[in-house]
Amino acid sequence: MRKALLLLALPAAACASAQGVSSPPDLTPIITTAAPSNARLYADCLRQATEARTYARASDPTTELLVFTCSGIPARTFYEALGPRTAAAGSEFTSGVLTVRPTEPPRRDLFGVDWCSWDGAVDWRCAVSLRTGTFLTDAP
User: Fold this and answer.
1) I need a surface site. Which of 50, 85, 106, 113 has the fewest CB within 10 A?
2) Mean pLDDT of all residues belonging to the chain
3) pTM for this predicted structure
């Protein structure tokens, strides 16, 4: 009996789909859990970048990002925390005196990848990307 009902429902579902009828999105808030300890690294970087207004837009044809750049102590702490991870993943990169540690190995470049760098002397920087969607560029 269940098979018969399912078979009868399939053509109706295909017809509704073909006509562009869809169900409304599920707007139930996403279930979250307590943030792990590394979340503090992101929060400290975002706080400093927000206070210093060191954020800017980055985009490609399908993605809009707001990139927050922090420096100093928050960046150094984040950079140092990434050390064991990037060493294990083989994703630490050096160019001249600059060493870059991404949070995830980049596929092609650093677009959309969070990363930290150190110039070998005194300049630590981190960039944290927030995917915004097209709302970022909507006119007010």
Assistant:
1) 50
2) 89
3) 0.80
